[in-house]
Amino acid sequence: MDLLHSGWAALEQKLSFVATDSVDWKSFVQFSSWIVTLFESYLLIRQYPLYSKTSPPKELEKYFDEEVFRKSQNYGKDKAKFSLVTGLLKQILDSTLIHSGFYAWAWDFAGEIIGYFGYSSEYEITQSLAFSAILFLASSIPSIPISVYATFVLEEKHGFNKTTPSLFVSDLLKSWILAFVIGGPFLSAFLYVFKWAGDRFVPWLMAFLLFFQITMVIIYPTLIQPLFNKLSPLPDGELRTRTEALASKLKFPLKHLYEIDGSKRSSHSNAYFFGLPWSKHIVIFDTLIKESKPAEVEAVLAHELGHWYHMHPTKLLCISQVHIFTILALFPAFLHSPQFLRSFDFSDKVAAHPPTIVAFLLFQMILTPLEAFVGIGLNFISRHFEWEADRFACDLQDRLKDPEMTDMGDRLGRALIALHVKNLSTVWVDWLCVYSAYHHSHPTLTERLKAMEGFRARKDVHIKKEL
């Protein structure tokens, strides 16, 4: 532990310029955030002409009829225009808040609010909660019209929306209540660890964040998700029999098998699993059950169990811990820099003793360009995991020595195609693949089908060699 702390001390020394040099951090944030936004807009503009193509890639021509492909192209075009406009609007709003000194005003206003209830600025955590509530409202209220348009215009136009106005309002109020009920105690504990641990907060804060993540894995499906969706035991039948048999053969610790009423809000389909290592739950959208045959849904679940077999959730958790560690290790240099806060219009009095929540928020803004690259890296890892899970499903016959699994790869391919067709997913991607690398955590449908063909071809060659 002492070695780690000495390493952090050396890192802080290298970052000492944050406290000593005159850096216009406000302009840096404005410039870097606009660069990222304009880059994202550029990728959308590069992708946009592909939505004017009149036929799918040759590999997919036999799966898309003309009408379905036309609908998917129109849906992709509308989503691209929506993303372009909303991305620019969000950036304009963020830039306006930064330029106007809104964050400094919000901190002072939070102090006035708690002062009204008899608390002074010495109660930093209390003021931080009020400050966070102000920022939450400032970001949430402008996003409501955007969400309304996305739900009742964009998704409605293309036949996906099932959300009623009353359900939309109910979901919004529930999410706001949860944000305060869960976010408030979380933020209080987060800031308390900072204060309690002092400059050696990194390992303690990482332990706290890991504990919170594990806690959410437990309480989300049991307490939070039922507020929005109904989870019902999957009825007896062919799909349940297939799923339980597959889980048993793979020794997957299946505890519950649920059907979720995803059709309550949307026509999109999905399936996933969650839970602790010794107790897993599988959830299948009712839309997937309705639109696919049990054998194809089983193939989708085989892919999901491939993620479990290769420990992808655990690996992603470890990667996220490295990411969090890096951020927290860099943060102290900015936490102890009054000059850093002054550049964002905070008063000398506030900047002299930088509030943790304020310094951390501004520090995250500094990381905007770095996080864009991190996102590409995480997408690369996620895409690799998707290919591994696909291969797992294709190789199930060899793993289980079960002749009924011979066509699992074909079934998975059909299921993926059906999901893309029903969801009107885009099948054309810019030839540079930068758009896909930046936005997609999954390989494209064409890439996945080609990869599965490659798996089968290599398997056939291996079999011939053995003969």
TrEMBL record:
Q: Which residues bind Zn(2+)?
A: H303, H307, E386
Q: Which Pfam families match?
A: Peptidase_M48, Peptidase_M48_N
Give Gene Ontology CC terms: endoplasmic reticulum membrane
Where primarily located? endoplasmic reticulum
Assigned EC number: 3.4.24.84
A molecular-function term among this protein's GO annotations: metalloendopeptidase activity
Gene3D superfamilies recorded for this chain?
Answer: Metalloproteases ('zincins'), catalytic domain
Q: What top-tier enzyme class does this entry carry?
A: hydrolase
Keyword terms = Endoplasmic reticulum, Hydrolase, Membrane, Metal-binding, Metalloprotease, Protease, Transmembrane, Transmembrane helix, Zinc
Cofactor note (record): Binds 1 zinc ion per subunit.
* Cofactor(s) the record lists: Zn(2+)
Peptidase M48 domain ranges (all copies): 234-453
Cellular localisation: Endoplasmic reticulum membrane
What is the top-level taxon of the source organism? Eukaryota
* UniProt membrane topology term: Multi-pass membrane protein
Q: Where are the transmembrane segments?
A: 27-45, 129-154, 175-195, 201-223
**One GO term of the biological process aspect:** CAAX-box protein processing
CAAX prenyl protease 1 N-terminal domain sequence ranges: 47-230
Task: Name the family the entry cites.
Answer: Belongs to the peptidase M48A family.
Q: What is this protein called?
A: CAAX prenyl protease
Give the originating organism. Answer: Pisolithus microcarpus 441
